[in-house]
Amino acid sequence: MTKTSDPSIQVVRCGFMALVQDQGRFGFQELGVSVSGAADKEALDVGNILVGNSPESAAIEVMLGDFEIEFMESMMFALTGAETEASLDDVPVGRNLSYKAHAGSRLSLSNVRQGLRAYISVQGGIDTPIILGSRSTHITSGIGGFEGRALQPGDVLKVGGSELGPMNIQVDVGMGTNHLRMNLVFGLY
Fold first, then answer.
1. Global pTM?
2. DSSP 65
3. Does some domain include residue 145?
4. What is the pLDDT of residues 38-92, one digit of tens each?
5. How far apart are CA 65 and CA 68, in angstroms?
6. Per residue, what are the HEC states of 78-123?
7. Domain-located, residue 2
8. Number of folded domains that form the chain
9. Which of 37, 44, 71 is nearest to 173 (CA)?
10. Which domain holds residue 58?
11. 11: how many CB neighbours lie within 10 A of its CB?
12. Which helix (H) or strand (E) holds 48?
């Protein structure tokens, strides 16, 4: 574990593909830059709500599981999107819930049961440079995300400051539906 001055997470293992994504890059299609952004925007939204982020915050989009990160500092996180086996320090974690990880904790994803892309949202969001209005990775043009490419073992991702704080909410999200039901309880903690 490498200590950094900013809140951060480090990629330990990366399977098929993992990218930094937000809602996307709009208004540049006439210049040949596609919107990109999260493939499952509802899952990204739910994750950001669960950890108290603004809707524009970036998260990690993991395709087909097989991914592991280490938290360099204590922080809240949520796992949304594809149904995948996941554990925090070998203790199972579920989807659509927020958790607190401690410094040195490891979140591991494997064996996708349903869906294609899972999202790891952290309180404060993934803090990469905003390029053409977005933090999203656009691999074809090599911009956004983490150095314009897919994540690799050893990458250290900075985490931004949180403005809203986590919320106590209940989320009922069904795979393959267009329905999203949320109960929100606003408060200081």
1. 0.85
2. S
3. yes
4. 999 999 999 999 999 999 999 999 999 899 999 999 999 999 999 999 999 999 9
5. 9
6. EEEEEEEEEEECCEECCCCCEEEECCCCEEEEEEEEEEEEEEEEEC
7. no
8. 1
9. 44
10. 8-185
11. 19
12. helix 41-50
